[in-house]
Amino acid sequence: MILHGYWRSGTSYRTRIALNLKKLEYRQAPLDLRTGAQKSDAYLRLNPQGLVPALETDDGLVLTQSSAILEWLEETHPEPPLLPSDAAGRAQVRAMAALIGCDIHPLNNLRVLKAVRGLTSDGMGADQTSVDAWAGQWIIDGFTALETLVVRHGDGWCFGGAPTLADCYLIPQLYSARRFHVDLAAFPRLLEIEARAEVHPAFIAALPENQPDAD
Amino acid sequence: MILHGYWRSGTSYRTRIALNLKKLEYRQAPLDLRTGAQKSDAYLRLNPQGLVPALETDDGLVLTQSSAILEWLEETHPEPPLLPSDAAGRAQVRAMAALIGCDIHPLNNLRVLKAVRGLTSDGMGADQTSVDAWAGQWIIDGFTALETLVVRHGDGWCFGGAPTLADCYLIPQLYSARRFHVDLAAFPRLLEIEARAEVHPAFIAALPENQPDAD
Predict the structure, then answer these.
(1) Under CATH, domain B2-80 is a member of which superfamily?
(2) Given A93, B27, B142, B160, which is the most exposed site by the fewest CB atoms within 10 A?
(3) GO cellular component annotations, sorted alphabetically (chains A, B) (predicted)?
């Protein structure tokens, strides 16, 4: 398989974690989002949205949107499972993943921060402090709820005692939170999961700084 | 089942469509997002995130996040199917849904628009024209890619010849686009789907103006 992504993109990072947890082989085809490589004609033919990640499968399928890619991986490569075996548990893990994937990450990614920087009425653009505050509010809102959910459902990881899709989403979001200088002291359960991921080979191999395009 | 939602919330709207397509009975428990009803202690106990929708099932489960609710509905009430029978098709439908659910809707909902209004450096807040422009850019970006995907995969609906989860997402996003005065002329295939939904009983029953809390 070929993963089209970017070392520091949260959606690429979560996809790498899932691929690694399932011990799947893949080659990376990096796109530098800072230079707009994802808007080239060649890439737009693969993914008309011009966003990362995209996964080319061995059958020649091109899959887009990390949430859809992760569900496809779970269906086609079920071991180890990244979703619980019962519908209620699956709904809870998917809700945790969506809390991050829909209510935090989309507000903090590169294209949106660029728009936020352009929003000030004096035409000068928001400074880094304003950008950190913008990103931080969504992270803190989401993590506050997620911490409660992990207390209810987690036992070492977000849900139960083994990594699930929710952890694939959480670890990159914690990495992003640190880049925006968010104080994470109020989220001890999330930090426990992060500490566990820091010594887990699948998560280590997925770290942004361990990717071929990292600078 | 009890659906906690709000008549004009896009995520509540998409959940109603799925419930209706599957011909499931549910009672509505509306929360007025404009007065902050979703932040009451009672509701936060149900959903620590304080967002709509939440679905209380007949077994007493509380499900949150519309994407997780829709997957749960599909697993527990499989007829009629809202996902294709093959993994590749399911990945495509989920990618279309996520294109809307992650890359358009989160940038246009009430809590984010409120933050956008507060972002201008003169402290006066962005005016309605700026808010429409903010919302419109994400809708146009996303719909441009979705139109291409529907040309590839659709046959009357987003994917194939029957409604799927992707249509549950699309119709509320078109409704929202009109509220932000987005010119939709460039998206004829999406408008064809909208026309089909306008005469489909499940979609009609889910319309915001047909809900008990509509004003």
Answers:
(1) Glutaredoxin (3.40.30.10)
(2) B27
(3) cytoplasm
Q: Which CATH class is domain A2-79?
A: alpha beta
| Domain boundaries of chain B, sorted by first residue | 2-80, 87-203
Nearest-CA residue of chain A relative to B56? A88
How far the first Cα of chain B sits from its last, in Å, is 24
Give tens-digit pLDDT for A69-90. Answer: 999 999 999 999 999 999 999 9
Please indicate whether, in this complex, the C-beta atoms of B145 and A50 are within 8 angstroms of each other: yes
Shortest distance between the Cα of A113 and any Cα of chain B, in A, equals 11
Question: Can you give the pLDDT at residue A120?
Answer: 59
Per CATH, A2-79 and A87-203 having the same topology is answered no
Residues B43 and B54: their CA atoms lie apart, in Å, by: 9
- The H or E element containing residue A29 is strand A27-30
H-type alpha helices, chain A: 10-21, 41-46, 66-76, 87-103, 110-117, 128-153, 165-179, 188-197, 201-206
CATH of region A87-203: 1.20.1050.10
Residues ≥6 apart with Cβ < 8 Å to B160? B84, B89, B153, B154
Tell me which H or E stretch contains B94: helix B87-103
pLDDT in tens, B111-124: 888 888 877 645 55
Q: Please report the ipTM that was assigned to this predicted complex.
A: 0.96
Q: How many CB pairs under 8 A join A and B?
A: 135
Q: Check if the beta carbon of residue B10 is closer than 8 Å to that of residue B3.
A: no
How confident is the model over B21-30, as pLDDT tens digits? 999 999 999 9
Q: Give the number of other CB atoms < 10 A from CB of residue B132.
A: 15
CA closest to B152 among chain A residues: A48
